[in-house]
Protein backbone atom coordinates (compact mmCIF):
# COMPACT_ATOMS: atom_id res chain seq x y z
CA UNK A 1 0.00 0.00 0.00
CA UNK A 2 1.33 3.46 -0.95
CA UNK A 3 2.22 5.75 2.00
CA UNK A 4 0.00 8.76 2.53
CA UNK A 5 1.19 12.27 1.72
CA UNK A 6 2.67 14.28 4.57
CA UNK A 7 1.00 17.49 5.69
CA UNK A 8 4.08 19.43 4.57
CA UNK A 9 3.87 17.98 1.06
CA UNK A 10 0.14 18.70 0.92
CA UNK A 11 0.80 22.33 1.79
CA UNK A 12 3.54 22.55 -0.83
CA UNK A 13 1.13 21.00 -3.34
CA UNK A 14 -1.54 23.53 -2.36
CA UNK A 15 0.80 26.51 -2.72
CA UNK A 16 2.08 25.32 -6.08
CA UNK A 17 5.43 25.84 -7.86
CA UNK A 18 4.92 29.59 -8.10
CA UNK A 19 4.64 30.17 -4.35
CA UNK A 20 7.33 32.30 -2.69
CA UNK A 21 9.87 30.30 -0.72
CA UNK A 22 8.87 32.13 2.47
CA UNK A 23 5.36 30.61 2.33
CA UNK A 24 6.68 27.04 2.23
CA UNK A 25 6.41 25.61 5.78
CA UNK A 26 9.76 23.91 6.24
CA UNK A 27 12.78 26.19 6.78
CA UNK A 28 14.96 26.27 3.68
CA UNK A 29 12.43 24.24 1.67
CA UNK A 30 11.67 25.09 -1.93
CA UNK A 31 8.35 25.05 -3.78
CA UNK A 32 7.40 21.64 -5.24
CA UNK A 33 8.74 20.60 -8.61
CA UNK A 34 6.54 19.53 -11.52
CA UNK A 35 7.36 15.89 -10.79
CA UNK A 36 6.32 16.22 -7.15
CA UNK A 37 3.07 17.91 -8.18
CA UNK A 38 2.31 15.09 -10.65
CA UNK A 39 3.04 12.39 -8.07
CA UNK A 40 0.92 14.12 -5.42
CA UNK A 41 -1.98 14.62 -7.81
CA UNK A 42 -1.85 10.99 -8.94
CA UNK A 43 -1.96 9.86 -5.31
CA UNK A 44 -4.81 12.21 -4.43
CA UNK A 45 -6.95 10.79 -7.23
CA UNK A 46 -7.15 7.44 -5.48
CA UNK A 47 -6.79 8.32 -1.79
CA UNK A 48 -9.83 9.78 -0.03
CA UNK A 49 -7.91 10.15 3.23
CA UNK A 50 -5.33 12.47 1.67
CA UNK A 51 -8.06 14.45 -0.11
CA UNK A 52 -9.73 15.04 3.26
CA UNK A 53 -6.38 16.11 4.72
CA UNK A 54 -5.83 18.45 1.75
CA UNK A 55 -9.22 20.08 2.41
CA UNK A 56 -8.20 20.73 6.03
CA UNK A 57 -4.86 22.20 4.93
CA UNK A 58 -6.67 24.42 2.43
CA UNK A 59 -9.06 25.73 5.08
CA UNK A 60 -6.17 26.52 7.40
CA UNK A 61 -3.68 28.07 4.97
CA UNK A 62 -5.79 29.25 2.05
CA UNK A 63 -9.19 30.33 3.39
CA UNK A 64 -9.86 32.59 0.41
CA UNK A 65 -9.57 29.69 -2.05
CA UNK A 66 -11.70 27.48 0.18
CA UNK A 67 -14.41 30.12 0.35
CA UNK A 68 -14.33 30.55 -3.42
CA UNK A 69 -14.71 26.82 -4.01
CA UNK A 70 -17.61 26.71 -1.54
CA UNK A 71 -19.41 29.57 -3.31
CA UNK A 72 -18.94 27.92 -6.70
CA UNK A 73 -20.29 24.61 -5.36
CA UNK A 74 -23.33 26.35 -3.88
CA UNK A 75 -24.08 28.17 -7.14
CA UNK A 76 -23.73 24.97 -9.16
CA UNK A 77 -26.00 23.14 -6.73
CA UNK A 78 -28.68 25.77 -7.30
CA UNK A 79 -28.40 25.72 -11.09
CA UNK A 80 -27.77 22.05 -11.91
CA UNK A 81 -30.57 19.49 -11.50
CA UNK A 82 -30.32 17.06 -8.66
CA UNK A 83 -28.79 13.70 -9.66
CA UNK A 84 -29.96 10.62 -7.75
CA UNK A 85 -27.20 8.86 -5.88
CA UNK A 86 -26.46 5.46 -7.38
CA UNK A 87 -25.87 2.44 -5.27
CA UNK A 88 -22.20 1.76 -4.73
CA UNK A 89 -22.51 -1.82 -5.99
CA UNK A 90 -24.03 -0.70 -9.31
CA UNK A 91 -21.42 2.04 -9.63
CA UNK A 92 -18.62 -0.51 -9.27
CA UNK A 93 -20.24 -2.87 -11.79
CA UNK A 94 -20.64 -0.07 -14.30
CA UNK A 95 -17.06 1.09 -13.80
CA UNK A 96 -15.78 -2.46 -14.34
CA UNK A 97 -17.89 -2.82 -17.50
CA UNK A 98 -16.68 0.53 -18.81
CA UNK A 99 -13.09 -0.82 -18.87
CA UNK A 100 -14.18 -3.35 -21.51
CA UNK A 101 -16.69 -1.40 -23.56
CA UNK A 102 -17.86 2.21 -23.74
CA UNK A 103 -21.01 2.82 -21.68
CA UNK A 104 -22.86 4.43 -24.61
CA UNK A 105 -26.17 2.72 -25.38
CA UNK A 106 -26.07 3.09 -29.17
CA UNK A 107 -22.94 0.99 -29.85
CA UNK A 108 -24.10 -1.68 -27.41
CA UNK A 109 -27.47 -2.07 -29.15
CA UNK A 110 -25.90 -2.06 -32.60
CA UNK A 111 -23.30 -4.66 -31.61
CA UNK A 112 -25.88 -6.96 -30.03
CA UNK A 113 -28.18 -6.75 -33.06
CA UNK A 114 -25.40 -7.32 -35.59
CA UNK A 115 -23.97 -10.28 -33.67
CA UNK A 116 -27.39 -11.92 -33.35
CA UNK A 117 -28.13 -11.41 -37.05
CA UNK A 118 -24.74 -12.83 -37.94
CA UNK A 119 -25.39 -15.85 -35.73
CA UNK A 120 -28.69 -16.51 -37.52
CA UNK A 121 -27.00 -16.30 -40.94
CA UNK A 122 -24.17 -18.62 -39.90
CA UNK A 123 -26.64 -21.04 -38.32
CA UNK A 124 -28.49 -21.22 -41.61
CA UNK A 125 -25.21 -21.94 -43.39
CA UNK A 126 -24.57 -24.85 -41.02
CA UNK A 127 -28.07 -26.19 -41.64
CA UNK A 128 -27.51 -26.18 -45.38
CA UNK A 129 -24.02 -27.67 -45.07
CA UNK A 130 -22.27 -24.61 -46.51
CA UNK A 131 -18.75 -24.14 -45.12
CA UNK A 132 -18.08 -20.79 -46.79
CA UNK A 133 -19.55 -18.69 -43.97
CA UNK A 134 -18.91 -21.08 -41.10
CA UNK A 135 -15.14 -20.85 -41.41
CA UNK A 136 -15.45 -17.08 -40.88
CA UNK A 137 -17.42 -17.49 -37.64
CA UNK A 138 -14.69 -16.19 -35.30
CA UNK A 139 -14.24 -13.02 -37.37
CA UNK A 140 -17.94 -12.16 -37.65
CA UNK A 141 -18.41 -10.82 -34.09
CA UNK A 142 -15.17 -8.83 -34.35
CA UNK A 143 -16.43 -7.11 -37.50
CA UNK A 144 -19.83 -6.43 -35.93
CA UNK A 145 -18.27 -4.88 -32.83
CA UNK A 146 -15.78 -2.84 -34.88
CA UNK A 147 -18.64 -1.39 -36.95
CA UNK A 148 -20.76 -0.68 -33.88
CA UNK A 149 -18.05 1.22 -31.99
CA UNK A 150 -16.83 3.16 -35.01
CA UNK A 151 -16.07 6.89 -35.09
CA UNK A 152 -19.62 7.72 -36.19
CA UNK A 153 -21.40 5.89 -33.37
CA UNK A 154 -19.10 5.96 -30.34
CA UNK A 155 -19.28 9.38 -28.62
CA UNK A 156 -15.86 8.91 -27.01
CA UNK A 157 -14.12 7.32 -29.99
CA UNK A 158 -11.57 10.12 -30.41
CA UNK A 159 -10.62 10.00 -26.74
CA UNK A 160 -10.23 6.22 -26.66
CA UNK A 161 -8.33 6.11 -29.96
CA UNK A 162 -5.53 8.18 -28.43
CA UNK A 163 -5.04 5.92 -25.39
CA UNK A 164 -2.71 2.92 -25.07
CA UNK A 165 -5.76 0.69 -24.55
CA UNK A 166 -7.01 1.24 -28.09
CA UNK A 167 -6.40 -1.17 -30.95
CA UNK A 168 -6.84 -4.92 -31.26
CA UNK A 169 -6.84 -5.50 -27.50
CA UNK A 170 -9.77 -3.14 -27.02
CA UNK A 171 -11.65 -4.76 -29.91
CA UNK A 172 -11.19 -8.20 -28.37
CA UNK A 173 -12.32 -7.01 -24.95
CA UNK A 174 -15.42 -5.41 -26.38
CA UNK A 175 -16.19 -8.52 -28.42
CA UNK A 176 -15.84 -10.70 -25.34
CA UNK A 177 -18.22 -8.41 -23.44
CA UNK A 178 -20.83 -8.53 -26.21
CA UNK A 179 -20.56 -12.30 -26.69
CA UNK A 180 -20.86 -12.82 -22.93
CA UNK A 181 -24.32 -11.26 -23.18
CA UNK A 182 -25.41 -12.73 -26.51
CA UNK A 183 -24.35 -16.36 -26.01
CA UNK A 184 -26.43 -17.05 -22.86
CA UNK A 185 -29.45 -15.23 -24.32
CA UNK A 186 -29.28 -17.21 -27.58
CA UNK A 187 -28.81 -20.44 -25.64
CA UNK A 188 -32.01 -19.82 -23.69
CA UNK A 189 -33.89 -18.69 -26.80
CA UNK A 190 -32.69 -21.68 -28.79
CA UNK A 191 -33.82 -24.11 -26.10
CA UNK A 192 -37.32 -22.61 -26.27
CA UNK A 193 -37.58 -22.52 -30.07
CA UNK A 194 -35.73 -25.71 -30.90
CA UNK A 195 -33.01 -23.91 -32.87
CA UNK A 196 -29.31 -23.55 -32.09
CA UNK A 197 -27.91 -20.24 -33.45
CA UNK A 198 -25.65 -20.00 -30.42
CA UNK A 199 -23.50 -22.90 -31.61
CA UNK A 200 -21.80 -20.82 -34.28
CA UNK A 201 -20.79 -18.19 -31.72
CA UNK A 202 -19.09 -20.57 -29.32
CA UNK A 203 -15.88 -20.82 -31.41
CA UNK A 204 -15.81 -17.02 -31.62
CA UNK A 205 -16.15 -16.67 -27.84
CA UNK A 206 -13.55 -19.37 -27.19
CA UNK A 207 -10.99 -17.88 -29.58
CA UNK A 208 -11.60 -14.34 -28.34
CA UNK A 209 -11.02 -15.41 -24.74
CA UNK A 210 -7.99 -17.42 -25.83
CA UNK A 211 -6.49 -14.37 -27.54
CA UNK A 212 -7.03 -12.26 -24.41
CA UNK A 213 -5.68 -14.89 -22.02
CA UNK A 214 -2.68 -15.74 -24.18
CA UNK A 215 -2.18 -12.08 -25.05
CA UNK A 216 -1.63 -11.24 -21.40
CA UNK A 217 1.58 -13.30 -21.63
CA UNK A 218 2.92 -12.86 -25.15
CA UNK A 219 1.04 -9.81 -26.39
CA UNK A 220 -2.37 -9.54 -28.04
CA UNK A 221 -1.00 -9.11 -31.57
CA UNK A 222 1.07 -12.30 -31.38
CA UNK A 223 -1.72 -14.27 -29.73
CA UNK A 224 -4.32 -13.21 -32.30
CA UNK A 225 -1.94 -13.90 -35.19
CA UNK A 226 -1.08 -17.37 -33.89
CA UNK A 227 -4.71 -18.30 -33.26
CA UNK A 228 -5.73 -16.96 -36.66
CA UNK A 229 -3.05 -19.03 -38.36
CA UNK A 230 -4.13 -22.10 -36.42
CA UNK A 231 -7.78 -21.58 -37.36
CA UNK A 232 -6.81 -21.22 -41.01
CA UNK A 233 -4.73 -24.41 -40.96
CA UNK A 234 -7.16 -26.55 -38.97
CA UNK A 235 -10.52 -25.25 -40.18
CA UNK A 236 -10.37 -23.07 -43.28
CA UNK A 237 -8.11 -25.26 -45.42
CA UNK A 238 -9.95 -28.58 -44.74
CA UNK A 239 -13.34 -26.93 -45.25
CA UNK A 240 -12.26 -25.34 -48.53
CA UNK A 241 -10.81 -28.57 -49.87
CA UNK A 242 -13.67 -30.81 -48.77
CA UNK A 243 -16.50 -28.30 -49.40
CA UNK A 244 -18.20 -29.51 -46.22
CA UNK A 245 -18.59 -28.21 -42.70
CA UNK A 246 -15.90 -29.84 -40.51
CA UNK A 247 -17.09 -32.17 -37.77
CA UNK A 248 -15.69 -29.90 -35.05
CA UNK A 249 -18.03 -27.12 -36.22
CA UNK A 250 -21.22 -29.20 -36.18
CA UNK A 251 -23.79 -29.53 -33.41
CA UNK A 252 -22.05 -32.53 -31.89
CA UNK A 253 -18.98 -30.40 -31.09
CA UNK A 254 -20.96 -27.71 -29.23
CA UNK A 255 -20.34 -29.10 -25.72
CA UNK A 256 -16.59 -29.10 -26.29
CA UNK A 257 -16.62 -25.51 -27.52
CA UNK A 258 -18.80 -24.50 -24.56
CA UNK A 259 -16.38 -26.05 -22.07
CA UNK A 260 -13.42 -24.45 -23.82
CA UNK A 261 -15.12 -21.03 -23.85
CA UNK A 262 -15.97 -21.31 -20.14
CA UNK A 263 -12.44 -22.37 -19.17
CA UNK A 264 -10.83 -19.64 -21.26
CA UNK A 265 -13.29 -17.10 -19.86
CA UNK A 266 -12.12 -18.00 -16.37
CA UNK A 267 -8.52 -17.56 -17.53
CA UNK A 268 -9.35 -14.06 -18.80
CA UNK A 269 -10.90 -13.16 -15.45
CA UNK A 270 -7.82 -14.41 -13.62
CA UNK A 271 -5.46 -12.31 -15.74
CA UNK A 272 -7.74 -9.27 -16.00
CA UNK A 273 -5.29 -7.05 -14.08
CA UNK A 274 -2.97 -7.21 -17.09
CA UNK A 275 -5.38 -4.99 -19.00
CA UNK A 276 -5.73 -2.39 -16.25
CA UNK A 277 -3.79 0.82 -15.80
CA UNK A 278 -0.89 0.16 -13.36
CA UNK A 279 -2.49 2.40 -10.72
CA UNK A 280 -5.81 0.51 -11.02
CA UNK A 281 -4.02 -2.82 -10.76
CA UNK A 282 -2.22 -1.74 -7.58
CA UNK A 283 -5.45 -0.46 -6.06
CA UNK A 284 -7.17 -3.80 -6.74
CA UNK A 285 -4.55 -5.63 -4.66
CA UNK A 286 -4.66 -3.28 -1.68
UniProtKB/TrEMBL annotation:
Membrane-crossing residue ranges in chain numbering: 96-120, 132-150, 171-190, 196-215, 227-249, 255-276
Alphabetical keyword list: Membrane, Transmembrane, Transmembrane helix
Keyword RNA-binding recorded: no
Leader peptide range in chain numbering: none
Protein's UniProt name: Zinc-finger domain-containing protein
Organism: Kitasatospora putterlickiae
Amino acid sequence: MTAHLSRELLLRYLLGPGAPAGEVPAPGAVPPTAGELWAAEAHLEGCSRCRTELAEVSRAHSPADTALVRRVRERLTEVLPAVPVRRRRWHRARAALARWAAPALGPWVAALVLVVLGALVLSSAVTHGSPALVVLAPAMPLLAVALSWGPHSDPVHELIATTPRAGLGLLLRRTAAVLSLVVPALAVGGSLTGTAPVLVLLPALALTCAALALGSRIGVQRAATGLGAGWAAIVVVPATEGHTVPAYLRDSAAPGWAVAAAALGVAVVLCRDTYLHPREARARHR
